[in-house]
Amino acid sequence: MFLGFVLGVAIAYLLTFFHIDQTIIAGVKDLIKIDIGQNGYYFLFGVIGGISRVMIGGFISGLIVAFLFTLANLDHIIIDGSKEWFKYDMTSSGYYLLFALLGAALSLLSIVKMCLKPLFFLTRKSNAK
């Protein structure tokens, strides 16, 4: 857990060079209405890494998917759709954070599914005659 925390902080430090830190900080402020600042940004990555190192990969994958959607101009459709459906005014920072959190959540669910797979195997009825 501690090693994952350190890895998460190290990855956050590397992403700072690409100015992704400001996007995530603004996204948290936009979606959750909390100003976490630079220290909160590092702590967020540390907690995600501490929970699961796979979640860091999902977080970064979500950012990459959001960037690819931006290249195809799908980001405006998603942001405007959230305004129409949910009456929620989201900025592009919130859009990137939303995709990053979805990526982290999906990776966490895949870990949970992998861990629970042996339990479902043991409870399955045998069709042997």
Shape: globular
Low-confidence stretches: none
Structural class: mainly alpha
Number of strand segments: 0
Number of domains: 1
Residues in helices, as a percent range: over 70%
Would you kindly provide a brief summary of this structure?
With 129 residues, this protein is mostly helical.
Topology:
Blueprint: H1 2-16, H2 20-31, H3 37-51, H4 53-71, H5 75-86, H6 92-123
Structure write-up:
Helix 1 crosses helix 3 and helix 4 packs across helix 6. The protein is built from six helices and no strands. The protein has 129 residues and is mostly helical. It has one domain. The mean pLDDT is 84.
Which properties best describe this structure?
single chain, 129 residues, mainly alpha, 6 helices, 81% helix, 0% strand, globular
